[in-house]
Design goal:
This protein is an all-alpha fold. The chain has two domains: 3-79, Rna Polymerase Sigma Factor, Chain: A; 97-169, Orthogonal Bundle (Arc Repressor Mutant, subunit A). Helices cover 78% and strands 0% of the residues. It contains eight helices and no strands. Helix 5 crosses helix 8 (146-169). The chain is rod-shaped, with a radius of gyration of 38 Å.
């Protein structure tokens, strides 16, 4: 293996290899990296390249450059690198402490307002929202008609809204 043979191959074909890679990857730095990889392979295979004619060496280098570039494109499709730090794409689902505090205050205000309702409205609201019963299920349980349950739900919601507004104004 002769260093002068490798130097001649590099000087004769480095531009060809670079442009073959660049046509596939369309990125300067990546084409340079691929060119370096091609000539590393050429250096390791000099014993096989020396007996070849110039056209055969040219074809071999072009084929290796194109294949490495295509491999790079295939792998790059799967990687999809991001500028975000690792884990940044994972959403933090934990509420902030301020949000937790506001939620607790709202829940306490709602609980207090529900306690302030008369027993009939409180029972219907509790069954519907906390026991997750439908209007028909509440009707069956209480013996009150579904139409009456619906009107009491509307009235109870209205009373709750008024009570919560009054508390918020304080």
């Amino acid at each position: 293996m002769s260093t002068s043979s490798f130097d001649k191959i590099y000087s004769d074909y480095s531009r060809l290899v670079y442009w073959a890679a660049y046509r596939v990857v369309a990125q300067n730095e990546t084409a340079e990296d691929i060119t370096q990889q091609v000539f590393e392979r050429a250096y390791l295979n000099m014993d096989k390249l020396e007996p070849l004619a110039d056209s055969q060496i040219k074809s071999w280098l072009y084929r290796v450059a194109t294949n490495l570039a295509l491999d790079h494109v295939r792998h790059a499709k799967h990687e999809q690198l991001s500028d975000e730090p690792v884990g940044a794409e994972i959403a933090d689902t934990e509420p902030l402490p301020e949000e937790e505090l506001l939620k607790k205050k709202r829940m306490e205000a709602v609980r207090k307002a529900i306690e302030g309702l008369d027993e009939t409205n409180r029972t219907i609201i509790t069954l519907h929202y906390f026991s997750e019963m439908t209007v028909n299920e509440i009707s069956e349980k209480t013996g009150i008609s579904p139409g009456t349950i619906k009107s009491r739900l509307v009235r109870a919601r209205s009373l709750l809204a008024d009570m919560l507004k009054a508390e918020a104004a304080e």
